[in-house]
Specification:
Distance between the termini: 49 Å
Number of helices: 8
Shape: flat
Order of helices and strands: HHHHHHEEHEEEEEH
Number of strands: 7
Strand content: 15-25%
Helix content: 40-55%
Largest sheet: 5 strands, mixed, barrel
Structural class: alpha+beta
Length: about 200
């Protein structure tokens, strides 16, 4: 990419606004695309990080592509149908989404609002919850040991019964029922990659 372009203020502002819209792990990926054409070693040098970091993030974004597709294509089908307001992905009015192996997502439609809605839904799928942040979610499932709360479409975590309230809870249904709104705090992921949430921590 020409250095003159990188010095252009308008370009820098647009680049920064796009980078800030994504979690930390995706910032490198976005910068990578703006440096398209450079090798991994050159990208690492320009960004001041190791080649392994660049490789790790590229691997991460490829994993996110799988998340966008979903099991058996369920997620991408739902995104296309909901964003376009159609019942079939083959509908002439359905938005077209190309998912490339390197992590690039290309959206096609003649309606800007549908493109923006599709982009938002995809970003929601690949967003990473921030540990320590408070979210307003909705209870989507109840089990004996706790409940599952969806903090945005495609992202839910478990609130263990011990994390439901500041006082002892005997039964989950004493605090939560499917469909209830719930304020939760993100506790991060466990060793098995499961998202843990806490209502108790959010109430403090």
């Amino acid at each position: 990419m020409p250095e003159a372009l990188l010095r252009d203020m308008a370009f820098q502002q647009r680049l920064q606004s796009e980078i800030n819209a994504f979690p930390v792990m995706h910032k490198i990926v976005l910068q990578y695309y703006y440096y398209a054409g450079f090798g991994i070693s050159e990208i690492a040098a320009k960004m001041g990080c190791s080649q392994e970091d660049v490789k790790a993030v590229l691997s991460c974004i490829r994993t996110k592509i799988k998340d966008i597709i979903g099991k058996g294509g369920e997620m991408i089908t739902k995104i296309i149908q909901d964003a376009s307001g159609v019942v079939s992905v083959n509908d002439v009015n359905a938005v077209k989404v190309d998912l490339e192996d390197d992590g690039k997502v290309i959206i096609y439609h003649n309606n800007k609002e549908i493109i923006e809605k599709t982009a938002k839904m995809i970003k929601d799928v690949i967003r990473v919850p921030e540990e320590g942040k408070i979210y307003k979610g909705k209870v989507v499932k109840i089990i004996d040991s706790g409940c599952f709360v969806e903090i945005w479409p495609g992202c839910d975590g478990m609130v263990h019964i011990s994390e439901l309230d500041t006082k002892r809870v005997d039964k989950v249904i004493d605090i939560a029922n499917v469909g209830d709104d719930m304020i939760v705090k993100c506790l991060g992921y466990d060793k098995k990659g499961r998202l843990n949430l806490s209502r108790k921590a959010a109430l403090k």
